[in-house]
Amino acid sequence: MTRNELAGTATLGLRANAAQFALLVAVNALVGGVVGQQQTVLPLLAADDFGLTGYTVIFTYIAAFGITKAASNYAAGILADRLGRKPVLLIGWLFAVPVPVMLILAPDWGWVVAANVLLGINQGLTWSTTVVMKIDLVGPDKRGLAMGLNEAAGYGAVAITSLLAGHLAATYGLRPAPFLLGAAYVALGLTLSALLVKETRGHAALEQHHRTPRLPSLRSGTTHSSRDIFALSTWREPALASASQAGLVNNLNFGLAWGLFPLLFATADLSLGQISLLFALYPGVWGVGQLATGALSDRYGRKRLITAGMGLQSAALAVIALAGTFPGWAVGTILLGAGTAMVYPTLLAAIGDVAEPAWRGRAVGIYRLWRDLGYAFGAVIGGIMADVAGLHAAVWAAAALSAAAALVVALRMYETHPTAR
């Protein structure tokens, strides 16, 4: 079938595509769960099973995950535009198959790092593709709501699985029980994607046919190179570039939290259950909050939520740096989750507002490239700062970067939602 023929069979809208959209939400929840299986457990596994003490060394697995996920996001965007969405989704799931087994059997830390390389490829290919497919299905009117539902499912699953994995680790030990969850998620995700998920490029072609381009210089998006799209998304186009830098800092915070928070909370002699709960609060509030914030951005616009969300993240990190008890850290992680919920689906919706359907996959992939490099930056900056100046100094550094990101959005980004200007 040609793309014109595919467009002829497509209908845009959330209601018209409710069944397929709901299936993709479920698939993305499984994608998030594969990450959640390890987030509470691996920092503790590094210290208890492998005797690692340097923060920079411990955070190597987060850096490996972030770099490979970022590169895979970029590849996913190009491949999704050229080959279709579903093939990329299936390839991504195949990369996840060995991950739980490698984590269970790992004789040394190198196996953990290698498993996170594969996990990064899996996350980049599968999550990017589900994002693009949902944007394809819903069309322009409910884009924020669609991204809120997508990200809520993914990060809600991260939170729930982190909590479950921590409970399993406390009950049955750090290995193998927590990672059996991930094995089940991979099997189910691959099966659903292969048998039930349908291609959505026809929906993108239909939107392209009826859409007036936002950027006059790219009226025929299919004729422009990936280099052009990279330049637009990185520095040339104010909204796209502002979204990319805000996304990078947002995930810098997540990468730092992933590796550092369990160790920081352990300094107060909290139990593994308390540590798991504190860590789960962050993605939990983040996940649930996106059910509201995505839809709010459709009504009130993208820029306000992004600016306020990055500012709230900065304040939340300051609370975490100042606190030293369970209640204080709980407040900080809840605020951090709320700030992230304001930002995460809204940034993706802003990319969808500006990018043409013909190069949407590449624009989303480039944005997610920069955003997920934040994992690596968070791991490196957090590890070095923690080794040199202590855990609290690393948190303060992230708070300062979040405040700077909010200022950049406030000064450079324009409102991208056409009805909210």
Automatic annotation (TrEMBL):
PROSITE patterns: MFS (PS50850), SUGAR_TRANSPORT_1 (PS00216). It is found in: Cell membrane. This is Predicted arabinose efflux permease, MFS family. InterPro entries: MFS, MFS_dom, MFS_trans_sf, MFS_Transporters, Sugar_transporter_CS. It comes from Arthrobacter subterraneus. The chain crosses the membrane at residues 52-76, 88-105, 111-132, 152-173, 179-197, 248-266, 272-293, 305-323, 329-352, 373-389, 395-414. The keyword Secreted does not apply. Pfam families: MFS_1 (PF07690). GO terms for cellular component: plasma membrane. Residues 6-417 form the Major facilitator superfamily (MFS) profile domain. It is a multi-pass membrane protein. PANTHER family: INTEGRAL MEMBRANE TRANSPORT PROTEIN, RESISTANCE PROTEIN MDTM, PUTATIVE-RELATED-RELATED. Keywords: Cell membrane, Membrane, Transmembrane, Transmembrane helix, Transport. Its main location: membrane. GO terms for molecular function: transmembrane transporter activity.
